[in-house]
Amino acid sequence: MGESRRAYVVCPVCGHVFRTTYASTYVTVGRETDLCPKIPGRPSDGARLIRSTVTMCPACSFAAGEAFDDLDLTFDERYGIEERLKEDGLLKVFRKGQPPWLGFHAAEVCGKERSLRSRELGDLCLRASWVCRKERERPFESTFQLRALRHFMRSLQEDDLLGRELSVTTYLVGELNRRLGNHREALNWYVNAGRTTEGDPRAAWLDRLIDRQSKLAREQAA
Ligand SMILES: [Zn+2]
Question: Is the Cβ–Cβ distance between 203 and 164 less than 8 Å?
Answer without folding.
Answer: yes
